[in-house]
Write a structure and sequence with these properties.
The complex is a heterodimer of chains A (366) and B (248). With 366 residues, chain A is an alpha/beta fold. Chain A has 14 helices and five strands. Chain A has helices spanning 2-20, 23-46, 61-68, 80-88, 115-131, 146-149, 165-197, 199-204, 210-238, 249-270, 276-294, 306-312, 316-329, 338-362; strands at residues 53-57, 73-77, 94-97, 106-109, 151-154. In chain A, β1 (53-57), α3 and β2 (73-77) form a beta-alpha-beta unit. With 248 residues, chain B is α/β, with parallel strands linked by helices. Chain B contains nine helices and ten strands. In chain B, α3 packs parallel to α5 and α4 (112-125) crosses α5 (141-153). The longest helix of chain B has 16 residues, at 171-186. Chain B is globular. Classes of the chains: A alpha/beta (366), B alpha/beta (248). The A-B interface holds A 197-199, 201-209, 364-366 and B 51, 54-59, 76-77, 79-80, 82, 84, 86, 88, 90-93, 107-109, 151.
Chain lengths: 366, 248
């Protein structure tokens, strides 16, 4: 009987704890959202992906067929060169190139887009297969048999038929994943632990400006993030079989900037939450999870509908994945990735300032 | 008021947390070399006063000076002169005792060699030299408390604030600590202490300040406070602050 009383007492206490800390509701929402997000993204991959942008050359019969089709989102370019460049700069997933002199059609694919590139090829094939028998000239004779005569070409030479193809794409995004995870652990969880143990208030007593304390933490953790990035690049090369075709320096700078920015953001959040469990839910739900799924690490952004692509583009990790893909697969050097680097620099500066402000405030007893 | 010669000068100090008044018009002057005990029930305002004097709390009205310096305007200089031993053992538990002390040395701009020597000296004084390399998480509560004391004293501060320094210590450790505190005081350094071991305050402090409900209600030597035939300081405190349990 004594044990039963204790047992019910413990039960009541536990339930009260979960409700008072709002963890019951938050964890429920968290789980539901994970399943919805995961399921939604898995569902997207099974969809026909009719929104995928496909380049065609103006004035060709293929352009006519693909423009009229609902299975692809055809973008018309004035010549073959423009259509080719559109694939190389990521404007379209694939371009259907018609040689001026006649001959085979070529479908040029952006092979860094994984499932999206495969889906685009499948959609183009379906449309052209359907169109072949009915594409007849004025004399009633069939002019072209598109489906049987076109060939595919991978823009970046990744060999989409290689069984390790998707693994290579994941390998390139590994650095971004590690930066995200490290930033959460090194800054968010560590600051919360310093709050609960009181060491942050010991640091606050140091006879120096508080910004130096925050910078000391940030720089040390950034060095650790850089070390992790270097390790993941080595893993990507030797375990995932990815060979960088460009300069790795922009990737390291991107890791540094993304790491600094994410740590600043995590500092700002952890300065306000009470404990590690709450941080896990509060920061994980609106930040870590969407960034993990929607930054192009696991799924190519092109498979998302337009609204989700717009959302994905505001995530700093998306810019880092773009840089990683560029330096691993597209032979990028500094000048090719200046735009995402500039965005990362802006994110980094603003988040470091926010983090420094909130932690500095935390160190003062209010 | 001659600010320069005083360890602490406080004038009409008022602190409120929302609608709750923590300190309501404190006036106080402390001399260097004079160990002072701040006594009073829980929630009386002792820790708030220490937070103001150690520059941790800046939202207050009135004036507070430490070693002739305004705690709001010269907070960095004030922090370089003081040491604070908080109630909680806020140590980096995964790190060794030595690493914890070396961090304090670095924060006070001591070079590595001086810092190491000072740390070894402190650890020897408090009997932790042999376990200096062990993670703090393996220390007992008393050992952690002694390490916090060592960290407070490492940079040889001019003035220390000791918040319940001997809580959780065995008799031997308490005596060793008080001996060290007395040696420190003998060097014309200033000590402000809060403790619930009233007999310790009576024995080691020449001046007792009793705070209750945010005000100083008694101030003097232990003997001078026994005006109503009380035998111990504890009786004095009970007479002054009442026997009712505090609501804070």
């Amino acid at each position: 009987m004594k044990s039963l009383t204790a047992f019910t007492g413990i039960m009541r206490n536990e339930i009260l704890l979960q409700f008072k800390t709002k963890l019951f509701v938050m964890s429920l929402i968290n789980s539901i959202l994970v399943v919805i997000l995961w399921g939604y993204l898995a569902g997207l991959q099974a969809q026909p992906m009719n929104h995928l942008r496909v380049g065609v050359v103006e004035g060709t019969s293929v352009a006519e067929i693909l423009t009229e089709s609902e299975k692809v989102n055809a973008i018309v370019f004035s010549d073959v060169k423009e259509a080719e460049e559109a694939v190389l700069n990521g404007e379209v997933i694939a371009s259907v190139l018609v040689p001026v002199q006649g001959g085979k059609l070529t479908v040029l694919l952006d092979d860094t887009q994984g499932a999206a590139a495969r889906a685009a090829l499948s959609n183009i094939t379906t449309v052209l297969l359907k169109a072949s028998p009915v594409t007849q000239n004025a004399q009633g004779t069939q002019t072209e048999r598109f489906a049987t005569t076109f060939e595919t070409k991978e823009a970046w030479g990744l060999d989409m038929n290689d069984p390790t193809y998707l693994l290579k794409l994941l390998g390139a995004g590994l650095a971004a994943m590690v930066v995200l995870s490290n930033a959460f652990v090194f800054s968010g969880f560590t600051l919360i632990s310093e709050k609960t143990s009181g060491t942050i208030y010991f640091l606050a007593l140091a006879p120096i400006r508080r910004i130096w304390i925050i910078l000391g933490k940030l720089v040390a953790n950034t060095l650790l993030i850089l070390a992790s990035t270097i390790i993941t690049v080595i893993i990507a090369i030797y375990l995932f079989g990815v060979t960088p075709t460009g300069s790795l320096w922009p990737l390291f700078l991107a890791a540094l900037l993304a790491g600094l920015g994410l740590m600043g953001l995590c500092y700002a959040i952890s300065a306000y939450v009470k404990d590690e469990r709450t941080f896990r839910v509060v920061a994980g739900l609106p930040l870590m999870m969407p960034m993990m799924f929607l930054s192009g690490i696991m799924y190519p952004i092109a498979i998302f509908p337009e609204w989700l692509q717009s959302l994905s583009r505001i995530f700093p990790l998306t810019w880092m994945v773009e840089i990683a893909h560029s330096v691993f697969f597209k032979g990028a050097v500094w000048v090719d990735v200046w735009e995402p680097l500039a965005l990362l620099a802006m994110f980094s500066v603003s988040m470091v300032l926010l983090g420094a402000f909130t932690v500095s405030r935390l160190m003062r007893i209010q | 008021m001659d600010w320069k010669t005083k360890a602490v000068s406080v004038k009409d100090l008022r602190v409120s947390y929302g609608k709750v008044t923590a300190l309501s018009g404190i006036d106080l002057e402390l001399e260097f070399g004079q160990p002072v005990a701040l006594l009073g029930p829980n929630g009386a305002g002792k820790t708030t006063l220490i937070n103001v004097l150690t520059t941790m709390l800046k939202r207050f009205d009135g004036q507070a000076m430490v070693a002739g310096m305004d705690v709001k305007r010269n907070s960095i200089k004030v922090r370089s002169l003081i040491g604070l031993m908080p109630q909680d053992n806020n140590l980096y538990e995964p790190l060794s005792g030595m690493d914890n002390l070396l961090l304090q040395g670095a924060l006070h701009s001591m070079d590595k060699k001086t810092s190491k020597e000072a740390a070894a000296d402190m650890l020897k004084r408090i009997g932790l030299l042999e376990v200096a390399g062990r993670p703090v998480s393996t220390y007992s509560g008393g050992m952690k408390r002694r390490l916090v004391y060592a960290r407070t004293m490492l940079h040889n501060p001019q003035m220390v604030f000791l918040d319940e320094p001997t809580t959780g210590l065995d008799v031997q450790s308490r005596y060793a600590l008080w001996e060290d505190i007395e040696n420190f005081s003998a060097q014309n350094r200033s000590i402000v202490l809060t403790t619930h071991y009233i007999e310790e305050a009576e024995r080691f402090c020449k001046r007792i300040i009793v705070i209750d409900k945010g005000r100083i209600i008694a101030d003097g030597s232990p003997e001078s406070l026994k005006t109503n035939g009380e035998k111990t300081l504890e009786e004095v405190i009970l007479n002054l602050t009442g026997k009712e349990l505090t609501k804070k």
